[in-house]
Amino acid sequence: ETFRRSYLFKDAQTKAILDLTGCTAYSQMRTKPGGELIASADCSIDVPLGRVTALWTSEQTAEIDPGTYYFDVWLKCGDDQRPFTTEQVDVAPTITEI
User: Fold this and answer.
1) Cα 50 to Cα 19: distance, rounded to the nearest angstrom
2) pLDDT for the residue 97
3) In tens digits, what is the pLDDT along the chain, a chain of 98 residues?
4) Residue among 54, 60, 59, 64 nearest 86 (CA)
5) Beta-carbon neighbour count of residue 80 at 10 Å?
6) What burial class does residue 9 get, using C-beta atoms within 10 Å of its C-beta: 0-12 exposed, 13-18 middle, 19+ buried?
7) Are 25 and 83 a contacting pair, CB within 8 Å?
8) CA quadruple 32, 34, 40, 45: dihedral, nearest 10
9) Are 26 and 40 in contact (CB under 8 A)?
């Protein structure tokens, strides 16, 4: 399975798009929130739009046993690094045609 999630960063008070210049982001798949790390993926950042996109490709999820997992997305700006979301996702079994 391939899945993509995009997140828009705006100032909570002014609603202005946040400047993500110099920031990096990554996503981690876990057995439960804060649980065992299963896999990691890089995220893309569109600085002018203040958007972070997590993309898990079918090649990446094919390496993961089928089941329900949680992925979190982390944003690192300078020395500040923290997760900003955790979501549940189901990884389906891989089906191969014969």
Assistant:
1) 6
2) 52
3) 788 899 999 988 999 999 999 999 999 999 998 899 998 988 999 998 999 999 988 888 888 888 899 989 999 998 999 888 888 888 877 555 55
4) 54
5) 8
6) middle
7) no
8) 110
9) yes
Q: Which two tokens stand for residue 82?
A: 């923290």
Q: For the chain, what is the HEC assignment?
A: CCEEEEEECECCCCCCECCCCCEEEEEEEECCCCCCEEEEEEEEEEHHHCEEEEEECHHHHHCCCCEEEEEEEEEEECCEEEEEEEEEEEECCCCCCC
Q: What is the pLDDT of residue 95?
A: 54
Q: Which tokens sit at 85?
A: 């979301």
Q: What is the pLDDT of residue 86?
A: 87
Residues 6+ apart with CB under 8 A from 74: 25, 26, 27, 28, 81, 82, 83, 84
